[in-house]
């Protein structure tokens, strides 16, 4: 594979989990393209299927889940969904770096970071292990850590922020150019979070990566991502360039989400919670719009027909109300502001 | 701004509400073997309670049919007294199960109290009690029982149960303590204290119910332990006995009737052996089922 | 290193106290034993045809060894003796120090139980991994249930079944004693072969009875580790299966090693039933004999030795854990 | 296990190979124990590796009969006052040194430290020796202290183990014999000397010779926890006629192991071992096995504590005797090891025929007879309510029988008696005690109503009856004088009457029994008849069964097993097969 | 009204006799929360917020200092005597699931404290039922649907409301909400915040809000005070809006700079402050606790500890020798 940032095209991806109530989709018909060299952010509440989607990029959905349909085309790898065995294993780590949601615990507690790094190198047939260590130290140094010390440490000797950085280092050290970060800052405090986000941005730029950041915190996406995709109940409800989406959210869910964020400045009365509760695998509607139960723009059609994402320039929105509105008149979302 | 106060209501509450017994039934049905376990266990209890009442005391003996192999007349053969082995297994079960029950109750009551107290009070009491528990756990049980067998009379189930119970609470205490500690960490205990609720309430209504399944499982497990050691002690022949029980039967079968040598006494050996095996099996199956029924993961699902 | 030294010091202090406590307990138990062994001996001699007076004298000679003096005096003597490794005088084996009798018996316990433990440990952990991986399958279920069952079934039941099958029915292996006397002791094939032949069934039984515990423990340990994030993380980094497997295995085995050390502590007293049934002359066998013969000193000594073994194993287990687990090593408690 | 026949250094004749046996007297070999016959676990095998002066037999009436051991022959003075021993002329120790009279004398000294029937420092002990004289290197003379003589003095002397003085001399101090003399006197000095002599006993018991030095046909080679190996002593005086070249003693802790060995045909000889019927059948069927039965001078009885109601009433005891079917009891409890007692006489049936053939038929046989039992109970004032017998005052009556836990034949018997009694309307229970020592302690303390009791310990007449009318029933023989203690005192737990009316004559059974100690055979017979009658009508015990001595032998490798009653079972702790072998009776099978 | 002066708390690592390690969680904290008032504690992880909250709620003892509840000093009282006073202060835990007993229905959960109260005041069983329904309504839950349920049948937001309702059963004067919203879904957080504010307004309950997300502090009410805590010390304290808009302590500034900017809606502050290193408990206790991480460290900082004080030209209290205003927070685009 080239040293170029790869593009990723997810098409109609559906992932189901086997539950007592049968196989239920956690991700349904998601279509998303990660442009080479971009940072894409996916936001959504807990249980909306973000991690599942991220794992699908590595064809690593854990049982009882499985990819039930769709494809994930990665430049230089082809359709990941079809990969098996050694091929798949080699792709992981070497082509796709994954920073785990619980990076806090993503290290083997019994081995030093350095040893795990060597294990990683051996797994991928790296001959020049010294070079690998050098590279790792460099990366860690780049992220403001003392490489030698960190490589000599066990997991429990590192703070949360440090572990997260080690996680990023391990994702990048084999020169992967597609990096997936699942909730990279959850459970970190503000200052550390800011730090990590800065590092993500810088490393992305320096190394020329294609990055996917997954989070439930819109602030995080806003900090780092070029493009933003919003998930709800396993569906992508809206996507587009970050600034545009944040500045002018179209989908009622996106709008609600943004409104619900407590801000440092501005009129606090403007903020409000979304009514209702986020769906779970069982309670998410099987047909029709997944968001309709909490939606203020709910229409009859929402109960039966699943809205298709409709493109408008670089943006896509899947909402009957918005789409029908934008079809007749141009955007009319500013009525409140 | 009160407009933000939107009452949350759950949808389809009735579907969420799961009946505990239905859950039990489902777990049972998923693996029929568990049902078998429950049935066998119930059978043993009935056997111990009712069985001896249905049989004459003393059991009729037939001096002309001493140590016979299983036959239609005597399903498990006869013992060296010419008594029916099956009847002996049944009458013997009372001692065994009564002892086991007493042991289990003592183990659980003492173990739970100490564990609760220790975990709840923490501090110095905890240290002292746990040191004590550690000590008790370090002393190997069977050898201690053997030594005790020389001073203590294990004649009645009460005496036996008392000793086994008093020797057995260590593990339960430790486990209950760690459960208590981990429950303490959960906010609801602290909240109850903050609300000024009494310690009795906290222990009786908040802690114990959360641990009940766990304790029940421990109780069942200590039943196996009790059966194991008491039968074992009798089997070794270091205890006098006042009536026939499984351990005595095993001892007599092996060391007196020569069950390992002559097929005639095989029934005499197999009787208690099968009883122990069945009982163990039943308890294993029931514990397995309980594990699933009470597993919080399953309940939170 | 200092941590280990500190822990060791603490443990030794506690172990010491505990040995004192156990010694005291066993002293008082032994001193309260009812029954009159002299009368029994006397009866036996008379039954054999000895004149009553002569029998009485003979018994007196035999029990002349028994300590006397006030209870307190006896107790202090006993404790003082303890420090000299003098555990008193055995009634049935006068002239032979109790400690010699014990060490003699201990070797017959240690080797087979050690072999049985290690065997069951090996098989148990391997099958435990299998049971964990296949836990939703039929075979995994069968393995777990069989594990629980073997774990729950009393050792003597297993031993009896083993004897019945291998000795009585098939007659392939001996179930009586430890070695054939006709072989000159030493490093010759005959003697060693005989040793092994006689040890096979006890070892097998011990392994069978311990195996259930290991498979269950390993299974649950592996299941826990499998659920740990770092395993999935390693997979997502594309680590080789063998390396991931090593990660699982090492982390899952760690708690089992402590259990192993602890079970090795129970080793001295762990084979009472097996030794009784196979007439294997180990410590348990000795203890039963001492109990039935009312040999106070021997009984107390055997019990004490068994307990000391457990205490030592506890210490070793903890230190072992300290060494092997970096989390504990750096002073962070893991529960 | 397998076996490699190591022919050893047994060059001498015989021609047999390995002889496998067990020591029935001692379960549990102890590998670390010394080759010391006085050590309870000592690896010394009387008859094989340790020798006695003679091998006393269990003759029905004559206690002094014996086979030659180290003593080739002996002469007993007609009044039993002395015995002169002639040693085997070419007896040698296994290290080649000759066996001398000095060895014998030292061995007697050692016997004193341990207490033996003839060599006892207990003042006034019956049948104690007075003087030991080495007449010449081959001759030793021992005289009896005639202050309290015993007709079985010679038996006591002959039953002495002979030890090599060149190995053992260190255990006895140089002034031992002076001390002994002092000890046999009276007063404080004597008391002190006695203590010293007895004190030596500990040393003797603990003594561990570096290696076994035996004057017997075999010498100990090695022991491991499961077996002991003895090899032929080529210096043994009769080595030419000793058939086996090696002897293997198998260890066992329980009877079931012995059965196993027997069924496998492994044992060439095993002493009496109780076995259930079908096990016995399998043993008999095993290739080459033979069961030889003979006399064993023991019986067992169900003894009453007459301090407890209602057992103080002779009618109650008789009533019970009429209810118990001894045949059935014996068949259930000890089908091979015993024969149901014909009646309660205090003597083993076989011995009784020799001692009191005329009295025997006149004794009440107590055949099962419910009607007679009822009559007796009524005489005793017992009442029957709802088919159940109750005490005179109307309170419930339960016959509570005790036995030690390990004694399975006794327990079986009691269980059987229980069901017989319950059937007859007498409530009964069986209570076990942890072990024999505890049983004896509690029995002695008078805690039991009814317990089992060994009796009729032959062949000496005194030994036979002292079990019924001895210390346990209140009569103690102190320095030749008989004293009676009240029930509950000094070990009198039977609590029987001091005098019994027999044939219209009041007798004191304890005094009569004591008299047996010094009576010769002829004088003893009428006394025994009286005592038998007393026992028969007063029933301090109900004699249940007489033991039978069962020996197991195997004819596949060796032959020549004796069938003579009196040598099937030798004296205390002797292994009869060893004696047979050294006598040259046992031959290798061709 | 609750005030604290010089509250000190040191944790000794338990179970280690020989190698005890001390954690100085609080180093002399002063605070005062008026009746019906509000205060927020913010700070990095591990700086002692929870510890202080628990001390205020009476769940943890303190080593030194004085806490006065409604004019009653707590220090002289024995633990048993303190209890009724501390009962006026109720804690709302971070994790709404573990704060409710999974084996008890909401009804049972509410019933226990209510019946205790009914017993104390001699009220009837009917009152209990009534009051249970009332507190549920107060937190915006429908008693009919909620009472009979078990905690696992409720969503996170509902659970947290139940927790609050339970606290209300004892008519508390103050609620201590320790990160009460951080485990609740984003879309529901504001609901809880609004509820707390609403309770303040309607019931006059004062609220102590503990968070590391500074923005949420604003939602407790604009009359609230903000306490910035660093390593067991209050480094800046003042009205919420003042501190947020014009922080003077570099630590406060670091915290505020770290808040992600909603690019597209906001533009970042001009002078963001980034600490030189991350928090390390083992850093020296000498001088200003923040000195090692402070980009603006002056001469005095290394060996002198600044105390919380008011200085000229700064409206809020702060503990910095060189207080300086910096524009660190993001501002909405619309404000441009
Ligand atoms: N192993 C599993 N078995 C069954 N359902 C699962 C499993 N893993 C996830 N799910 C369900 O799939 C849905 C999506 O889960 P996922 O972890 O992808 O969500 P997420 O958006 O990452 O949430 P979070 O923010 O909590 O990480 C959820 O409803 C979850 O309950
Ligand atoms: N029970 C305890 N024993 C020992 N140390 C403790 C204990 N509780 C808290 N600490 C220590 O006290 C310090 C302050 O902890 P505290 O929980 O109050 O911080 P916090 O500000 O609430 O952090 P977070 O934002 O992570 O909740 C920490 O270093 C912590 O490790
Ligand atoms: Mg996720
Ligand atoms: Mg906190
Ligand atoms: Ni508005």
From TrEMBL, chain A:
Every copy of the ABC transporter domain together lies at 8-258
**Pfam family example for this protein?**
ABC_tran
Its keywords, alphabetically, are: ATP-binding, Cell membrane, Membrane, Nucleotide-binding, Transport
What kind of membrane protein is this, topologically? Answer: Peripheral membrane protein
Gene3D superfamilies attached to this UniProt entry: P-loop containing nucleotide triphosphate hydrolases
| Location relative to the cell | Cell membrane
Q: Read off the InterPro entries from this record.
A: AAA+_ATPase (IPR003593), ABC_Ni/Peptide_Import (IPR050388), ABC_transporter-like_ATP-bd (IPR003439), Oligopep_ABC_C (IPR013563), P-loop_NTPase (IPR027417)
GO MF terms, alphabetically ordered: ATP binding; ATP hydrolysis activity
Matching CDD domains: ABC_NikE_OppD_transporters
Keyword check for Amino-acid biosynthesis:
no
One GO cellular component term: plasma membrane
Q: Which GO annotations describe the biological process of this protein?
A: peptide transport
Identify the main location. membrane
- Alphabetized NCBIfam families for the sequence: oligo_HPY
Know the name of this protein? Answer: Peptide/nickel transport system ATP-binding protein
User: What is the species listed in this Swiss-Prot or TrEMBL entry?
Assistant: Nonomuraea wenchangensis
TrEMBL record, chain B:
InterPro entries attached to this UniProt entry: BP-dependent_transpt_permease, MetI-like, MetI-like_sf, OppC_N
The alphabetized UniProt keywords are:
Cell membrane, Membrane, Transmembrane, Transmembrane helix, Transport
| Record localization | Cell membrane
PROSITE patterns per record: ABC_TM1
* SUPFAM superfamilies registered for this protein in UniProt: MetI-like (SSF161098)
Q: Which domain of life is it from?
A: Bacteria
Q: Which Gene3D superfamilies match?
A: MetI-like
The GO cellular component terms are:
plasma membrane
Question: Looking at the keywords, is Ribosomal protein present?
Answer: no
Segments spanning the bilayer are 35-55, 95-117, 137-154, 160-176, 215-239, 265-287
The answer to whether UniProt assigns keyword Endoplasmic reticulum to this entry is: no
As for family, the record states: Belongs to the binding-protein-dependent transport system permease family.
- What protein does this entry describe? Peptide/nickel transport system permease protein
Upper classification of the source organism reads: Bacteria, Bacillati, Actinomycetota, Actinomycetes, Streptosporangiales
UniProtKB/TrEMBL annotation, chain C:
Q: In this protein, which residues make up the domain named ABC transmembrane type-1?
A: 106-317
Any one Gene Ontology BP term: transmembrane transport
Question: Which sequence ranges are marked TM in the entry?
Answer: 12-30, 110-133, 153-173, 253-274, 296-321
Which locations, inside or outside the cell, does it occupy? Cell membrane; Membrane
Q: Does the keyword Transferase apply?
A: no
Keyword field: Membrane, Transmembrane, Transmembrane helix, Transport
Please verify whether the record's keywords include Transport.
yes
Pfam families according to UniProt: BPD_transp_1
Name the principal localization, coarsely classed: membrane
Annotated Gene Ontology cellular component terms = plasma membrane
Membrane-topology descriptor:
Multi-pass membrane protein
| PANTHER family according to UniProt | OLIGOPEPTIDE TRANSPORT SYSTEM PERMEASE PROTEIN
**Into which family does the record put it?**
Belongs to the binding-protein-dependent transport system permease family.
Q: What is this protein called?
A: Peptide/nickel transport system permease protein
Automatic annotation (TrEMBL), chain E:
Q: Does the keyword rRNA processing apply?
A: no
Keywords from UniProt, A to Z, are:
ATP-binding, Nucleotide-binding, Transport
Pfam families assigned:
ABC_tran, oligo_HPY
Q: Which PROSITE patterns match?
A: ABC_TRANSPORTER_1, ABC_TRANSPORTER_2
The protein in question is named Peptide/nickel transport system ATP-binding protein
Any idea where the ABC transporter domain is? 2-256
CDD domains hit by this protein:
ABC_NikE_OppD_transporters
- Report the source organism: Nonomuraea wenchangensis
A single BP term in Gene Ontology = peptide transport
Q: Where is the signal peptide?
A: none
InterPro entries linked:
AAA+_ATPase (IPR003593), ABC_transporter-like_ATP-bd (IPR003439), ABC_transporter-like_CS (IPR017871), Oligopep_ABC_C (IPR013563), P-loop_NTPase (IPR027417)
Question: What does the organism's lineage look like at the top?
Answer: Bacteria, Bacillati, Actinomycetota, Actinomycetes, Streptosporangiales
GO MF terms held by the record:
ATP binding; ATP hydrolysis activity
């Amino acid at each position: 594979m080239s040293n170029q940032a790869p593009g990723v095209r997810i098409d109609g991806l559906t992932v189901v989990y086997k539950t007592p109530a049968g196989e239920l989709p956690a991700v349904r018909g998601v279509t998303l393209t990660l442009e080479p060299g971009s940072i894409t952010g996916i936001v959504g509440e807990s249980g909306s299927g973000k991690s599942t989607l991220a794992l699908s990029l590595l064809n690593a959905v854990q049982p009882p889940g499985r990819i039930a349909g769709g494809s994930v085309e990665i430049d230089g790898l082809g359709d990941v969904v079809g990969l098996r065995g050694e091929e798949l294993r080699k792709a992981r780590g070497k082509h796709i770096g994954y920073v785990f949601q619980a990076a806090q615990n993503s290290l083997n507690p019994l081995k030093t970071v350095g040893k795990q790094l060597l294990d990683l190198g051996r797994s991928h047939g790296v001959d020049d292990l010294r070079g690998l260590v050098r590279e790792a130290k460099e990366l860690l140094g780049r992220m403001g850590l003392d490489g030698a010390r960190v490589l000599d440490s066990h997991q429990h000797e590192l703070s949360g922020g440090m572990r997260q950085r080690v996680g990023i280092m391990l994702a990048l050290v084999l020169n992967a150019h597609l990096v997936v970060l699942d909730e990279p800052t959850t459970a970190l405090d503000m200052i550390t979070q800011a730090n990590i986000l800065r590092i993500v941005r810088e490393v992305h730029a320096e190394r020329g990566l294609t990055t996917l950041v997954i989070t439930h915190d819109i602030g995080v996406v806003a900090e780092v991502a070029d493009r933003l995709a919003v998930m709800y109940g396993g569906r992508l409800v809206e996507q587009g360039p970050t600034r545009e989406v944040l500045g002018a959210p179209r989908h009622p869910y996106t709008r609600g989400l943004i409104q619900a964020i407590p801000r440092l400045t501005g009129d606090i009365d403007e903020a409000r919670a979304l009514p209702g509760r986020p769906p779970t695998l069982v309670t998410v509607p099987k047909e029709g719009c997944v968001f309709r139960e909490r939606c203020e723009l709910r229409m009859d059609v929402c109960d039966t027909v699943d809205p298709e994402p409709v493109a408008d320039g670089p943006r896509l929105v899947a909402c009957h109300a918005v789409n029908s509105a934008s079809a007749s008149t141009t955007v009319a979302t500013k009525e409140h502001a | 701004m009160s407009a933000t106060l939107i009452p949350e209501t759950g949808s389809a509450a009735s579907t969420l509400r799961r009946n505990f017994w239905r859950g039990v039934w489902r777990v049972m049905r998923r693996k029929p073997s568990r049902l078998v376990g429950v049935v066998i266990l119930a059978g043993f209890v009935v056997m111990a309670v009712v069985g001896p009442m249905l049989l004459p005391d003393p059991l009729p003996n037939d001096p002309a049919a001493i140590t016979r192999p299983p036959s239609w007349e005597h399903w498990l053969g006869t013992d060296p007294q010419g008594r029916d082995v099956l009847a002996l297994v049944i009458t013997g079960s009372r001692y065994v199960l009564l002892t086991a029950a007493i042991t289990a109750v003592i183990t659980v009551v003492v173990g739970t109290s100490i564990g609760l107290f220790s975990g709840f009070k923490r501090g110095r009491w905890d240290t002292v009690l746990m040191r004590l528990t550690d000590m008790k756990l370090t002393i190997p049980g069977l050898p201690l029982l053997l030594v005790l067998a020389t001073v203590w009379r294990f004649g009645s189930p009460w005496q036996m149960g008392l000793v086994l119970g008093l020797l057995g609470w260590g593990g339960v205490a430790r486990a209950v303590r760690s459960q208590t500690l981990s429950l303490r960490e959960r906010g609801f205990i602290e909240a109850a204290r903050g609300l000024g609720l009494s310690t009795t309430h906290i222990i009786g209504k908040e802690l114990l119910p959360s641990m009940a399944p766990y304790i029940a499982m421990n109780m069942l497990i200590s039943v196996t332990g009790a059966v194991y050691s008491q039968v074992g002690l009798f089997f070794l022949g270091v205890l006098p006995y006042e009536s026939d029980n499984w351990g005595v039967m095993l001892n007599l079968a092996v060391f007196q009737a020569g069950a390992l040598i002559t097929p005639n006494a095989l029934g005499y050996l197999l009787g208690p052996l099968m009883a122990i095996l069945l009982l163990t099996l039943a308890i294993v199956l029931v514990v397995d089922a309980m594990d699933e029924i009470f597993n919080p993961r399953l309940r939170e699902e | 290193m200092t941590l280990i030294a500190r822990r060791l010091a603490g443990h030794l202090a506690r172990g010491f106290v505990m040995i004192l406590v156990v010694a005291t307990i066993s002293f008082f138990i032994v001193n309260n034993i009812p029954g009159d062994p002299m009368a029994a001996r006397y009866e036996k001699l008379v039954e054999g045809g000895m004149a009553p007076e002569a029998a009485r004298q003979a018994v007196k000679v035999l029990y002349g060894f028994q300590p006397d003096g006030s209870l307190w005096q006896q107790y202090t003597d006993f404790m003082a003796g303890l420090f000299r490794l003098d555990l008193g005088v055995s009634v049935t084996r006068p002239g032979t120090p109790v400690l010699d009798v014990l060490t003699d018996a201990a070797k017959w316990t240690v080797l087979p139980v050690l072999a049985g433990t290690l065997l069951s440990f090996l098989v148990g952990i391997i099958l435990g991994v299998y049971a964990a991986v296949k836990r939703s399958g039929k075979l995994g279920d069968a393995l777990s249930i069989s594990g629980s069952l073997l774990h729950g079934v009393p050792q003597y039941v297993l031993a009896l079944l083993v004897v019945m099958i291998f000795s009585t029915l098939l007659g392939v292996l001996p179930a009586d004693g430890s070695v054939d006397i006709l072989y000159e002791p030493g490093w010759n094939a005959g003697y060693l072969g005989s040793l092994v032949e006689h040890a096979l069934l006890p070892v097998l039984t011990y392994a069978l009875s311990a195996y259930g515990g290991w498979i269950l423990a390993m299974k649950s340990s592996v299941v826990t580790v499998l659920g740990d994030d770092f395993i999935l993380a390693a997979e997502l980094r594309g680590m080789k299966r063998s390396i991931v497997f090593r990660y699982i295995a090492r982390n899952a085995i760690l708690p089992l090693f402590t259990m192993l050390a602890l079970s090795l502590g129970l080793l001295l007293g762990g084979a009472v039933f097996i030794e009784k049934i196979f007439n294997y002359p180990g410590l348990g066998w000795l203890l039963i004999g001492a109990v039935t013969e009312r040999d106070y000193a021997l009984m107390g000594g055997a019990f004490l030795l068994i307990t000391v073994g457990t205490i030592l194993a506890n210490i070793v287990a903890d230190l072992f854990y300290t060494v092997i687990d970096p989390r504990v090593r750096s002073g962070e408690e893991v529960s | 296990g397998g076996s490699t026949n190591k022919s050893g250094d047994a060059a001498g004749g015989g021609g047999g190979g390995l002889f496998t046996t067990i020591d029935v007297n001692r379960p549990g070999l102890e590998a670390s124990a010394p080759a010391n016959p006085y050590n309870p676990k000592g690896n010394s095998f009387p008859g094989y590796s340790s020798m006695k002066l003679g091998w006393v037999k269990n003759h029905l009436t004559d206690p002094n009969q014996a086979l030659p051991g180290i003593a080739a022959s002996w002469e007993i003075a007609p009044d039993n006052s002395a015995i002169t021993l002639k040693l085997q002329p070419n007896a040698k120790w296994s290290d080649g040194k000759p066996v001398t009279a000095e060895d014998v004398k030292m061995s007697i000294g050692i016997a004193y430290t341990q207490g033996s029937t003839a060599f006892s420092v207990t003042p006034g002990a019956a049948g104690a020796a007075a003087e030991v004289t080495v007449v010449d290197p081959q001759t030793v003379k021992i005289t009896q202290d005639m202050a309290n003589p015993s007709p079985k003095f010679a038996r006591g002397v002959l039953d002495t183990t002979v030890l090599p003085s060149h190995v053992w001399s260190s255990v006895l101090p140089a002034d031992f014999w002076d001390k002994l003399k002092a000890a046999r006197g009276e007063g404080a000095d004597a008391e002190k000397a006695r203590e010293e002599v007895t004190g030596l006993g500990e040393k003797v018991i603990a003594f561990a010779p570096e290696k076994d030095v035996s004057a017997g046909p075999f010498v100990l080679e090695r022991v491991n926890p499961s077996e002991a190996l003895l090899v032929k002593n080529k210096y043994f005086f009769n080595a030419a006629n000793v058939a086996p070249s090696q002897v293997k003693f198998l260890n066992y802790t329980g009877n079931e192991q012995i059965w196993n060995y027997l069924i496998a045909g492994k044992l060439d000889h095993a002493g009496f071992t109780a076995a259930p019927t079908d096990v016995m059948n399998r043993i008999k069927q095993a290739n080459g096995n033979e069961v030889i039965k003979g006399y064993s001078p023991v019986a067992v009885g169900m003894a009453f504590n007459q301090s407890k109601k209602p057992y103080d009433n002779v009618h109650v005891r008789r009533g019970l005797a009429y209810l118990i079917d001894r045949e059935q009891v014996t068949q259930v409890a000890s089908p091979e090891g015993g024969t149901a007692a014909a009646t309660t006489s205090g003597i083993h049936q076989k011995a009784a025929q020799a001692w009191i053939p005329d009295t025997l038929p006149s004794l009440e046989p107590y055949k099962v007879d419910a009607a007679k039992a009822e009559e007796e109970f009524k005489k005793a004032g017992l009442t029957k309510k709802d088919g159940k017998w109750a005490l005179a005052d109307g309170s419930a009556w339960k016959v509570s029988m005790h036995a030690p836990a390990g004694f399975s034949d006794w327990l079986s018997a009691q269980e059987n008696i229980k069901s017989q009694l319950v059937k007859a309307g007498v409530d009964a229970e069986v209570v076990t005690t942890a072990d024999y020592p505890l049983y004896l302690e509690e029995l002695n303390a008078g805690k039991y109503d009814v317990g089992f009791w060994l009796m009729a310990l032959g062949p000496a007449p005194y030994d036979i009856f002292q079990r019924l009318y001895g210390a346990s029933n209140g009569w103690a023989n102190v320095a030749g004088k008989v004293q009676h203690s009240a029930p509950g005192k000094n070990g009198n737990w039977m609590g029987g009457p001091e005098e019994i009316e027999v044939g219209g004559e009041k007798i004191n059974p304890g005094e009569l029994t004591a008299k047996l100690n010094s009576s010769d055979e002829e004088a003893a017979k009428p006394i025994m008849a009286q005592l038998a009658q007393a026992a028969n009508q007063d029933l301090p015990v109900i004699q249940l069964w007489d033991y039978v001595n069962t020996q197991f032998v195997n004819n596949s490798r060796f032959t020549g097993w004796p069938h003579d009653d009196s040598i099937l079972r030798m004296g205390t702790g002797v292994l009869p097969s060893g004696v047979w072998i050294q006598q040259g009776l046992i031959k290798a099978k061709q | 009204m609750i005030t604290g002066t010089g509250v000190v708390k040191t944790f000794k690592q338990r179970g280690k006799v020989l190698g005890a390690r001390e954690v100085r969680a609080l180093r002399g904290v002063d605070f005062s929360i008026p009746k019906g008032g509000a205060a927020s504690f913010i700070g990095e992880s591990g700086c002692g917020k929870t510890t202080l909250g628990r001390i205020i709620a009476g769940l943890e003892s303190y080593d030194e200092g004085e806490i006065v509840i409604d004019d009653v000093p707590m220090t002289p009282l024995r633990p048993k005597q303190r209890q009724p006073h501390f009962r006026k202060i109720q804690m709302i835990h971070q994790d709404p699931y573990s704060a409710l007993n999974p084996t008890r229905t909401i009804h049972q959960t509410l019933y226990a404290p209510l019946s205790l109260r009914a017993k104390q005041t001699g009220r009837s069983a009917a009152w209990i039922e009534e009051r249970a329904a009332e507190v549920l309504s107060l937190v915006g839950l429908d008693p009919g649907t909620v009472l009979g349920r078990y905690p696992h049948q409720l969503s996170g937001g509902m659970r947290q409301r139940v927790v609050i309702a339970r606290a209300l059963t004892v008519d508390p004067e103050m609620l201590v909400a320790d990160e009460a919203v951080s485990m609740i879904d984003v879309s529901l957080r504001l609901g809880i915040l609004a509820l707390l504010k609403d309770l303040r307004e309607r019931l006059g309950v004062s609220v102590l809000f503990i968070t590391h997300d500074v923005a949420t502090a604003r939602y407790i009410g604009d009359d609230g005070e903000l306490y910035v805590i660093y390593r067991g010390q209050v480094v800046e304290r003042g009205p919420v809006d003042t501190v947020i808009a014009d922080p003077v302590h570099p630590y406060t500034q670091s915290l505020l700079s770290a808040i992600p900017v909603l690019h597209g809606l906001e533009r970042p502050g001009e002078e963001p402050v980034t600490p030189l290193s991350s928090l390390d408990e083992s850093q020296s206790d000498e001088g200003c606790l923040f000195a090692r991480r402070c980009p603006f460290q002056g001469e005095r900082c290394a060996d002198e500890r600044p105390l919380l004080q008011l200085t000229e030209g700064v409206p809020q209290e702060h503990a910095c020798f060189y207080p300086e205003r910096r524009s660190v927070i993001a501002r909405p685009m619309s404000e441009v």
